[in-house]
Design a protein that fits this description.
The chain contains 17 helices and 21 strands. By secondary structure, it is of the alpha/beta class. Helix 3 runs parallel beside helix 5, helix 4 crosses helix 11 and helix 13 packs parallel to helix 14. The chain is globular, with a radius of gyration of 24 Å. It starts with a strand and ends in a 6-residue tail after the last helix. About 50% of the residues are buried.
């Protein structure tokens, strides 16, 4: 937390009656297992639990007060506030915390690339600021408030990732964040079960624009089909564009793509400078992510050389294009964190640069009625791009293998995939592994990695 506060201040913020006994709080917790002495415990609900039932254990663990939206059968013996909706109250408290933060906050959303862009943005900001960023995948209506509440007095800048599974979620979280800079990486057919259509995705990602400070900066992908719609939505706000062609404000020249990274030169339309960058993240899509960060950082007044230094200091993390060593000298590219059609196409473009390219896929989830067609399209695209072999598991991925044709192999489960690859994989092959979280392809990565402790 940025500051200590009293329970009576929380009551005033939420429009509640003052507590019978006031106490000073030094933090916020929603999990009795992680409570620190002095915390205010906020009782959230989940599919299989009701946080109100844990009020007494929270107080026993060191919480000085509890915020509930339902009084349990045995009333907790300690300072208490009762509201209509603890989740909304949690967000309001997080917004209060954000208002006390004086440094720049960059918010990032998009169908693909937002986590890598977050990592790149944080590494760039770290060159000049003590920076906080979203940890892991805490990018939803609970994770974003948690990120804001974790800001400390030593932090000078922050990067907040915003995800969504349906309309309105980004509007909610972005309006809590109140970013000085908002980045939209792209919009594609992901989570269509929640959004209904690509148009729904575009509309929802655009909610970030509405919540960027009036004097702030909106960073948009000039190559995305939704660009014109987003640009119009930004109105009179300052817009900086990025893309792989010279029509964007920030664009790349002299692209040299490798399986383990990319070299390129950043140019700024109307400016005489250019800045070479060596990026440890492979693929044109990651060059676009780096350009988005470059645009945001320039908008915050950072120099091109400092931005490049930050980009070059960044390295892939597990599940997102991280290169590992496998048996027989194989190179394993762990891109297993998640998948949608756009990100698999980008992965295929990367793996196709290798002379012996194996693509290992699990099902893509949440694609709605077009799921089978989307999986077929991925198989055809992999074949067109020259992928040597495709190995897949999952009911939908049968269509991927069928479309790929010769050298396509469908297997019933992850264990069979691992056994097949260990038996059939040529020495010195490059293997890229990807699938939605529900496919659990990270388990395949661990089984194939030569040193499991890496």
């Amino acid at each position: 937390m940025l500051f200590d506060f009293t329970l009576s201040q929380v009551a005033s913020l939420l429009g509640l009656a003052q507590p019978s006994r006031d106490v000073r709080c030094t933090g916020i917790s929603t999990d009795t297992r992680q409570i620190q002495p002095g915390d205010l415990y906020v009782a959230l609900r989940g599919e299989h639990f009701n946080g109100n039932d844990f009020a007494a254990p929270a107080l026993a663990a060191g919480a000085v007060a509890v915020l509930l939206d339902e009084v349990p059968g045995v009333e907790p013996d300690g300072p208490m506030l009762v509201c209509d909706d603890a989740l909304l109250a949690y967000g309001l408290i997080a917004g209060w915390q954000r208002d006390a933060f004086a440094g720049p906050i960059v918010a990032i959303t998009g169908s693909a690339g937002k986590t890598t862009t977050k990592q790149l943005m944080a590494k760039v900001l770290e060159q000049q600021f003590t920076t906080w960023m979203t940890q892991g995948n805490l990018n939803n209506h609970i994770g974003v408030p948690k990120t804001l509440l974790a800001l400390q007095s030593e932090h000078e800048a922050a990067v907040v990732e915003l995800g969504a599974s349906g309309p309105g979620e980004i509007r909610y979280t972005a309006c809590l964040v109140k970013p000085v800079v908002g980045i939209i990486t792209n919009a594609s057919a992901a989570h269509l079960e929640g959004f209904g259509s690509l148009a729904g995705v575009v509309q929802t990602k655009g909610e970030l624009i509405d919540c960027v400070d009036a004097e702030g900066i909106v960073v948009l992908n000039a190559d995305d089909p939704a660009f014109d719609q987003w640009r119009a939505r930004a109105g009179h706000k300052q817009v900086i564009t990025f893309g792989l062609s010279a029509t964007a404000d920030l664009y790349a020249e002299d692209l040299q793509a490798r399986v383990d990274g990319s070299d390129f030169t950043v140019c700024c339309r109307g400016q005489s400078w250019s800045q070479p960058v060596q990026l440890a993240f492979p693929g044109r899509h990651n060059i676009a992510n780096a350009l988005a960060v470059f645009a945001a950082a320039l908008g915050l007044g950072m120099s091109p050389a400092i931005v490049a230094k930050g980009l070059e200091a960044a390295a892939p993390v597990a599940g997102r294009m991280k290169t590992l060593v496998g048996e027989g000298g194989a190179r394993i590219i762990d891109d297993s964190y998640n998948a949608n059609p756009a990100s698999i196409r980008a992965a295929i473009d990367v793996i196709s640069l290798a002379p012996c390219a194996w693509l290992v896929l699990g099902d893509m989830a949440e694609l709605g009625e077009g799921a089978e067609q989307a999986h077929s399209d991925m198989g055809r695209y992999a074949k067109q791009q020259g992928v040597s072999a495709l190995v897949a598991t999952g009911p939908l991925s049968r269509a991927t293998v069928t479309a790929f044709g010769e050298q396509g192999y469908w297997l019933p489960d992850r264990d069979a995939v691992v056994a097949f690859i260990k038996q059939k994989m040529p020495d010195q092959a490059t293997i890229l592994i990807k699938g939605s979280r529900s496919a659990g392809m990270d388990q395949v990565v661990r089984a194939l990695q030569l040193h499991s402790g890496e």
